[in-house]
Structure formats: C-alpha cells, structure tokens
Amino acid sequence: MISLEKAKNYLRVTSSDDDELIMELVQASDALCMDILRTDEKSDAPLVAVAKLYTLAYLYEHREDANHEELMQTVRALLSGIRKEVF
Fold first, then answer.
1. What is the largest CA-CA distance in the chain?
2. Which of 13, 42, 49, 57 could form a disulfide with 8 if both were Cys (CB 3.0 to 4.6 A apart)?
3. Burial label, 51 (beta-carbon count in 10 A; 0-12, 13-18, 19+)
4. What is the CA 30 to chain-centroid distance, rounded?
5. Any idea where the domains of the chain sit in the sequence?
6. How far apart (Å, rounded) are the C-alpha atoms in residues 50 and 17?
C-alpha cells in the first residue's frame, strides 16, 4: 500500500489537513486496482504503483465531480497487460 508520505508527495500536499481523506483514497485506489487486476494478491510491480497513484490523484483532484467511468477506463488500460483473465 502507498504510504501517507508518498501519497502526499505525489499529490504535492504539504499540510496535514487532508491526511485522513488521503489515506481513505489510498485504500480506495488499492481496492480499485486489485479489482481491475482480478486478484487479492498485493503487487509491487511499478505499473501497479503508477495505476494506484493515478487513481489516488484522480479521486483527490476530482472529489466533487469525478467521472468514474473515465477513471475506470484509464486504469483498465494501464493494467490491461497484467490483468488476470478470471479471478
């Protein structure tokens, strides 16, 4: 899972005002990527880390107006090469 420090660095957040929200979004991005990958196994693959950070940033920056279909299409495209055929 992405650490709070790494998440805040990626998001360019310096205050601690959103720490709780950021950690909730880290958990959501992790779950979303694992669902797309169709696995329960944690992965340290660089591509998975990029997808998780992208998801985190998208959810953080679009809190009020997120287009989840657009997000899912992009993350599926990022992870399509390593996505399992079935659970």
1. 41
2. 13
3. buried
4. 5
5. 4-79
6. 24
A 10 A CB-CB count for 59 gives 20
Helices (H) and strands (E) counted in the chain, each on its own, are 4, 0
pLDDT at 87: 57
| Cα dihedral 50→8→32→65 (10° resolution) | -110
Structure tokens of 82? 């390593």
Which amino acid belongs to residue 43?
S
Helix (H) or strand (E) holding 51: helix 46-61
pTM of the predicted structure, to 2 decimals = 0.89
Number of Cβ within 10 Å of residue 31's Cβ equals: 12
Q: Could you tell me the mean pLDDT of each successive run of 10 residues in the chain, 87 residues long?
A: 95 97 97 91 88 97 93 95 78
CA dist 47 and 50 (Å) reads 5
